[in-house]
Amino acid sequence: MTATQKIDPITLQVIRGAIETIAEEMAHVLFRMSFSSIIRESEDLGAGLFDTDFNTLCESESTPMHIGSIPGYLRGIAETLDDGEWCEDDVVVHNHPYFGASHSPDLAIVIPIFHAGKLVGFSANTAHHIDIGAATPGLIIDVPDVYAEGMLFAGTKLYRKGKRNETIWSFIRRNSRASRQLVDDIEAQIASARLGVRRFKELLDRYSEDLVFSACNQLMDYSETMLRQRIAAIPDGEYRAEGWLDDDGRNRGQHLPVKVCVRVIGDRVEVDLTGSAPQTPTAYNVPFEGSTKVAAFAAFRKLLLDTATSETRVPSNQGSFRPISVIAPKGSIFNPEAPASAEARFTQCNFMIDLIIKAMAPVLPSEIIAGSSASISFASYAGVQPNGEYWVFLEVNEGAYGGRPRSDGPDAIDNLMANTRNNPIEDLAMHIPMICDRYELRDDVAPGAGRFRGGMGVVKAQRILTDGIITHESERHSNVPWGIFGGHEGAPGKCEIYNIETAEPPRQMHSKFHGLAVRRNDVMAYYSPCGGGFGNPLERDPQKVLEDVLDGFCSPENARDVYGVVLDLEAETLDLALTEALRLQLEGQLQRQSL
Amino acid sequence: MARIGVDVGGTNTDLVLECDKGIFFHKVPSTTKDQSIAVVEGVLQICDIAGVAKESVDVIAHGTTVATNITIEHNGAEVGMLTTRGFRDILHIGRHKRPHNFSLHFDVPWQSHPLVKRRNRIAITERILPPTGEVEVELAEAEVREACALFRRRGLRSICIGFMFSFLNSRHERRAREIVLEEIPDAYVSISSEVANVIREYERFSTVAMNAFVGPKSALYLRNLERKVSEAGIAAKLRVIQSNGGIATIDGCVKKPVGILMSGPAGGVLGALAEARLAGIDNILTIDIGGTSADISMVTGGRFRIKNARDTVVSGHAVMAPMIDLETIGAGGGSIAFIDTAGGFNVGPRSAGSEPGPACYGRGGTEPTVTDAQVVLGRMDADKFLGGDLPLDPALSEKAIREKIAEPLGLSVVEAALGIIRVVNNNMALTIRANSVARGYDPRDFSLMPFGGAGPFHGVALAELVAARDVIVPVSPGITAAMGLLGTDLQYEHTRSVITPLFTADQPALDRVNAVIDELSAAGRHELDNDGVAPESRVFEVVAEVRYHGQGFELRVPVIEGRLTRANKSAVIAAFHAMHVADYGYAFDDSLVELYNIRVIATARVPHLALPLVAPGQPDDLDRARLYERPTVFDDGSTHMTPRYDRRKLGIGTRVSGPAILVQHDSTTLLPPGYTAETLAHGSLKITRA
């Protein structure tokens, strides 16, 4: 590709609009066309255009974990490509975690873009597939190595010069518990990537290759400048935070430390994860290229280029990755070495982001927020139908945000790197032998108190109507989301399994468990962590405390003892005078305690 | 006999009256506190203007933003909700997806401005089981009464009921409503199986909650309007435009105000459709450009499209009510151009609105807007804006563009102004493309129709950008929406989920589907009976909402014969495959095709607006219409001494060649060099490349 021009700001805006629309169109086709609920309902996917140096030119606004991961795939494909070269109308599938993939269930489909007979870029997307033939249906955790993850593709051509490679398609069809969905969803990915090729070629024809790529380069520089300006405004220094993860899914009770050091050096940032746990013997590791780096990039976009508070939206391209470098020693949980498995990698990423936010508290007090659920609940439910075929259902459960400098932490919502949609309960029950018994805010605990309170988590109880198997990837059963600047801590997550036909008490589950055989009418009830509070609860607007009590976000006792608010519950009103007096008294107690 | 269309906008209430003397237009300032004041006033005035007795007005068709404004201003009813135990917070959780990927400080509209506060969402013991709808746990009636006692204590009068799986069996919802009405006789009760009888709990509950939220106030407004109209001695039947492009009676809207949330913008598309009919055109891309935003839609084969129910969101809340498929973007005359800290050039979505308005209004606005760019380029004559009613100050436009854009970028003021126009046109063109080309339509088969006061400035440029065939400028671009109200049919829609694999469907399965069609048709027939619609003007349309088994999105396939038979089901399957190919470029196997919902649309045809013919063109039309000429800058940067023509004086077939500007009271059409505008029979303009 050639790119030699200086593009005026107006033309730049025109090209930007065009390529962003292409990425959105690609994502739209993919989730509308696909079959498995993890793609069509949850939108666990990403799509975009890339140049021959594997720079992201544009990417759809779908799920953050996918955004920024595709360059890693492209570098991995460059090392492994079938035939060693790209030809027009090739279609490649790739998911190898040691060749740049985010994790193996996220298959990338890549199609080269040729213009005037020359390779100029790639149209690509990634999507989470429900079963690629791993050790157990859907998800895995307690497995020995990467070979237990199922089919690993590295630079594998599904089409050569437009000709379908039937051998590989029939291989795929025979190696998945949900082969129909897998194959049809790959078709959806191909349709989406082909659309990207067509649209990008139209753009090149209209504006010329040189103009388009010159503009793309300038747009990357633009995003980079925006982020560097924000970083430069932060005082240079090392900012640290640390915490731990529950366990690796096998060795119970052995916490895994996570250490984050953010080095701000002028207009760039280094995220150093040295000191975090060594790689684990299970699947609980994070591929460095496709996931660790992506999470670090996302953390700074959230912190410094917040789309809700910025007047301008910074284009989603390579430029926003450049000012950030990531260090994680080889052989550590954030940079495992083969043959370690690295499929269950989400909660570590989310926790790392939570720690980056915490580390920056001293210098970005009005940008950061209190501790969030910063985990995920990713469950796979599966069973065998009478005809011998599997059914598999993957579900992402939400978390909650920590309190924020100007508002409460949102309740029951996908947290940090996660941003999927839930699967309608009614739709589920019409298609799969499961039924939901409960889905609402959990009211067994309170979210973190603060001037702005933390978000409330959910409880979701899913009952399985046949014998089956469940794998659950989750976190923070022992490590409670923190409060900040005087805010109180939130509440940990928990998970229970019980059978509605027996009187046995619920079994308390570890945050991660693998391949658990369950019986008909067993229920898994997941309770997500609640966010920590931001600021001193005695400074919370008393009216808000009254509202919280009426709405069940705060008990009358906590209103009095923690928030110092005096209420008349019968009349549903507030006594401001008594509240002021009580708050003075509680403030005094706090000061005496701290002396 | 006369018919009147009344469209209430933010600034003006537009009226169109059609009678045997012809068509009359009128505008009065909107009365924002109570829209009905301006409506009645305007109706009386336009009757005077037309010389029509107010007693002889037969129908008033009304487009209103009342329900929409309630959602924007968050001032609807305090609502109580009864829902299934264990699922109290479906409305609070929504689809658990954040509105922003990269943000820590985002707002969650369904949590910060809930339709029903958590304290008023009361869980009731009851359970209906999928997939058959059998009752596992009977409704705990005592709990319903207890909840009503709480609602009474809190003074709640608008109650909604949403139970899980009620789309399979509505018995519990209906029984709970009976109890609520016993306990709170004056309650406004909405139940989910009536308001949106479809699968997907969050969307169904959100829809019924929205109905309860906007219901009482909308009902009050509509009843009040009805009373005022009759008190003013106007005997007309009052009809309200719905989001789906149909019109409904006051009674219908009072029960289901969730159907009029997009009443305002729907009028624009209907107006464009009416104009297209007059011009004899089937395929149009419509763009209604106002001060802060532009509404973009499409008409194919003489019909507008209905939005996929998965995309119908109003003020952040899911609403499963059929709506015309239109996209609104933050691009209009008031959109502000600015340079950001990294040197990026942006236009909108922030707008100067009407206060302070563009810099040239001289009301204190200092930021350059799209309107200021038009003024600087000599396209809007400062002394003639709105017929000279609101003189503009071009020096202020020039200053704003020079200081905020031209100097920072090292451009001339004209270059900067051209840049503003180019970026805003591009933003609009991308949305038009996303709504047409991206769905498999060839833009070369479409005319672009720009309207709204500012629309015809942009028409030719947009048609070029999206490669549309030509441009049709409506007769009165400023009041197209009001005209649309007179071209609409009375319409009722009923939907039910009836999940059926089509390929393997046997006779009993088809019978089940047809029984649903019969039931929904009967409901529509009943409503048309109530409206006194003659049998010969009734039309029933059956739509199958179909998907591949496992997909999350349905496409709408017409069931032409109105019943599903073994003979025609393969045609339905084939039509679905074809639509899927058109939308996504791919079709899957027959075995996967699944019927999801049945929708029956009951319509009463009304006569369409008949604009009179304009006078035949005369050889001296151009001379008579010619006003004056001034230098004007066009999009290619060239400046021409450009004549202005009075559009009203152009007869049928008269051709104007660009460069030219065609003016009328509330709109200006820009005709660049190389283009010709021909006046069509009813007065609209067809612009083509010369």
UniProtKB/TrEMBL annotation, chain A:
Annotated ranges, domain Hydantoinase B/oxoprolinase: 8-537
UniProt-listed InterPro entries: Hydantoinase_B (IPR003692), Oxoprolinase-like (IPR045079)
Coiled coil: none
Superkingdom as given in the UniProt entry: Bacteria
Name of the protein: Hydantoinase B/oxoprolinase family protein
Organism, as annotated: Ancylobacter radicis
